[in-house]
C-alpha cells in the first residue's frame, strides 16, 4: 500500500479513536491480534517469500561468497543487510538516496540483527587474514499495508535460518569450496536463536491510552506513539524502541513490553519451525542427488 499523500483529518482521527475505544478495528482483528504470516520457500536455500494477508509481500534472500576477512578483525567474516522498495509500492521509490521508510527499516534490522550480530562472525572466517565468508541478507518489499518492521525481520530471520554455506576445506593457503551436489553445506552460525519483533501503536492522550498490536498502514498514520519490541525464541526481550513523540504512561509501556515480548517470542518460534519443516522436506532430495553422483 503506497504511503498516504495527505495527513488524516481531525474527524478521521476522532472516528478511529472512538472505534478503538470500543475495541473495533477496520480489519476485524482484536486489539491484541497479530496478522497471520505465511512463509514460502520457492527456490534455493535462503530464498523466502513472506505473505501477510492479501496486502504484504516481502522477498528475502541470503547469499554467502568467499571474500577477505573484515577490515576491523582479520579473524572474522562479514554480515550486511540491504533493503529495497518496489516502485509498485509508491511512485516515490526511485533510484537515489534512501527514503525515510528505507532508513527506518534499515535501522530496525541492523539493531535487531547486527548489534550484536546474530551470526558468529568468527565462525565465518576460513583463514585469518586470507579468506572468510561474506554473508548478505537482501530484502525486497513488493507490497505492504503497515507492519513492515516486523514483517521484514521475520522474513530476514527465516532467510538466515534457511540459508546454507557451501562446504569448504583449507589446505595450506588454498581454500576449496564444494558444490552442493559434491558435499552438503552447513547452516549459518547463528548466535542465540531466532528473533522477531512486534510493533505496537498507542492511541489517545496520556492516561487514556488505547494499545493496538500490529497496526496496519491506516492505523500507523494515526498513532500518538509507537513501540517496537524485539524478543528471541526463548522469550528474552532483546530490544525496545519508542517513537512517535507522544507521551506514554510508564505502566502502559511495561505492560506493552510484556505482552508484545511474549508474542514476538512465539512468532520467532513459529519462524524456526516453518524453516525446519521445509529443510526436512529438502533433505531426502539432496541425499538422493549426491548418492546418484557417487554411483557414477
Topology of helices and strands:
Elements: H1 10-21, E1 37-40, E2 47-52, E3 56-67, E4 78-85, H2 100-113, E5 125-127, E6 131-143, H3 148-162, E7 164-165, E8 168-171, E9 174-177, E10 186-187, E11 195-203, E12 210-213, H4 217-220, E13 225-232, E14 237-243, H5 250-295
Parallel strand pairs: 4-6
Antiparallel strand pairs: 1-2, 2-3, 3-6, 5-6, 7-10, 8-9, 11-12, 11-13, 13-14
Helix pairs in contact: 2-3, 3-5
Task: For the structure shown, list the relevant keywords.
single chain, 31% helix, 296 residues, alpha+beta, six-stranded mixed β-sheet, elongated
Our Rg estimate from Cα atoms comes to 21 Å
Main beta sheet: strand number and arrangement? 6 strands, mixed
What series of H and E elements makes up the topology?
HEEEEHEEHEEEEEEHEEH
What overall geometry do the principal axes of the alpha carbons give? Answer: elongated
Description:
This protein is 31% helix and 29% strand. It is an alpha+beta fold and 296 residues long. Strands 1, 2, 3, 4, 5 and 6 form a six-stranded mixed sheet that branches. It has a four-stranded antiparallel sheet with strand order 12-11-13-14, with helices on both faces. The radius of gyration is 21 Å and the shape is elongated. The model is unreliable at 287-296 (pLDDT under 50).
Short description:
The protein has 296 residues and is of the alpha+beta class. It has helices at residues 10-21, 100-113, 148-162, 217-220, 250-295; strands spanning 37-40, 47-52, 56-67, 78-85, 125-127, 131-143, 164-165, 168-171, 174-177, 186-187, 195-203, 210-213, 225-232, 237-243. The strands form 4 sheets. Strands 1, 2, 3, 4, 5 and 6 form a 6-stranded mixed β-sheet that branches. The protein has a 4-stranded antiparallel β-sheet with strand order 12-11-13-14, sandwiched between helices. A two-stranded antiparallel sheet has the order 7-10.
